[in-house]
């Protein structure tokens, strides 16, 4: 079996606490320029904020959107670039002032640049915030220095070299939450400290979980943590090259049919919300599933103390919103994916050596949109 700890992916997973501390320095240094661009936009009550990306980058938006809607009291939606490019008139059906927040590890995916261009074509007042890990990527180069656009670069090491997005994902998520939500960068130090604890204490537990060799892995979460469950499921599917099945849902939505995926060979991971109201629903599904398939098959991850036997609770994050805590929680699914990949004999950094699936998506044909003729 390959040793997952020798992979670039493992190094990138475990480097995240350091990278978040570097991110705090970057955001502090750029605070004046960032505020000069964003503050006038966020002051507009008619502003629509669209969070966009493809794959893992899209799931950044799924986590951040509900949290930012609550923090900004603005209309915030997560719309993947893949949906914008294929259905631009639906994505931009209302011609209102719109801030398109684009997440991109490399910025070289075909949809990244086109989605931003379509916003310019279809909207009277489009604005662009680009959060990316590559200064030389097509998206960063296309938007740098343009009126109505602002590019924020992540720490250099956040530009993952492995197939799976790990530190790039968490860096873009945290920068978005801070830039748009108004949270102090001090939270990044707390998250990094919690992540250090996870990496120091839970790697062996993850290895033991992988040794059970579950045939299916299910991730559940509510609110922002549903987006986290989506990303967690994809990480497992990507790193195992589809050799193991993964699934995601919300705590309440799981009962409406998807629960049929559960059997005695299923491992369920429930991200329990720190919101006192929301967590009631999370704990209900935990109790129900543990009664059905046993406590060992239902792992609980929580950002604040919870009365569940065997729960993995993060330290000193009781008052931190779920969307931020998600960046620490994802370490466990990332490690689960890497260790399972190695256990299956896969190349952790390149689970698809045949090139069937690529680090930067290929094969996309962009069809031109006729504007303004089609606009009517």
Structure described in brief:
By secondary structure, this protein is of the alpha/beta class. Helix content is 46%, strand content 14%. The chain has 15 helices and 10 strands.
Describe the structure.
The protein is of the alpha/beta class. It has 2 domains: 185 residues, Glucose-6-phosphate isomerase like protein, domain 1 (Rossmann fold, 3-Layer(aba) Sandwich); 139 residues, 3-Layer(aba) Sandwich (Rossmann fold). It is built from 15 helices and 10 strands. Strands 2-1-3-4-5 form a 5-stranded parallel β-sheet, with helices on both faces. The chain has a 5-stranded parallel β-sheet with strand order 7-6-8-9-10, sandwiched between helices. Helix 9 packs antiparallel against helix 14. The longest helix is centred in the N-terminal third of the chain and has 17 residues. The radius of gyration is 20 Å and the shape is globular. The termini are far apart.
| Rg from Cα | 20 Å
Largest sheet strand order = 2-1-3-4-5
Query: Alpha-carbon distance between the termini?
Result: 59 Å
| Helical run tally | 15
Unreliable stretches (pLDDT < 50, length at least 5) are none
**Gross morphology:** globular
Tell me how many strands there are: 10
Total number of distinct structural domains? 2
Helix percent band:
40-55%
- Class from helix and strand fractions: alpha/beta
According to CATH, what is the topology of the largest domain?
Rossmann fold
Which CATH first-tier class of the largest domain would you pick?
Alpha Beta
CATH superfamily of the largest domain: Glucose-6-phosphate isomerase like protein, domain 1
Largest sheet: 5 strands, parallel
Can you write the helix and strand succession as a string?
A: HHHEHEHHEHEHEHHHEHEEHEEHH
The CATH level-2 architecture of the largest domain is identified as 3-Layer(aba) Sandwich
Q: For the residues shown, what is the average pLDDT?
A: 94
Strand residue percentage: 5-15%
